[in-house]
Amino acid sequence: MDLNDIYQQIILEHSKSKKNKHDLESYDMSEPGHNPSCGDEITLQVKLSDDKKNIQDLAFTGVGCAISQASASIMCDLLRGKTIEEAKELCEIFLGMIRREITDDETLEKLEDAEALRNISNMPARVKCAVLAWHTLNDMITKK
Q: Please, which domain of life does this record's source organism belong to (predicted)?
């Protein structure tokens, strides 16, 4: 099995998983995200720690293609338990990877499973699908 097969498997598993796709019982921030070019829509919910410095939990609801759903799910797994500052950095790395501005493997390793979406940059029509959740979260935490 080559790396592309592994990446496809990760994307497929996350696109079907309901682990991160649900409403949180309680949350501190909620932000809708919409991709008008294909109709993907998500609502992202974030529960912060008591000191408001860490992402205690996050989840999403909505509809969209396999790429947008997988990307949102992978992002939830990656950012759960991270500080707000770490989340901002990981969003920047992910968006930089998709724009092909960040290519060094050591930096991209921080993305864990999100690196599976690396080759989306070769499919311009799918880029907005992959970045929807990341832009939504970035908008939410930079205005807080």
A: Bacteria
What DSSP designation does 118 have? G
DSSP 122-141: G-HHHHHHHHHHHHHHHHHH
Dump the DSSP string for 42-70. Answer: EEEEEEE-TTSSBEEEEEEEEE--HHHHH
What's the whole-model pTM score?
0.94
Q: What is the pLDDT of residue 3?
A: 74
Mean pLDDT value across residues 68-73: 96
DSSP string of 67-117?
Answer: HHHHHHHHHHHHHTT-BHHHHHHHHHHHHHHHTTS---HHHHGGGGGGGGG
Run of H or E residues at 31: strand 29-35
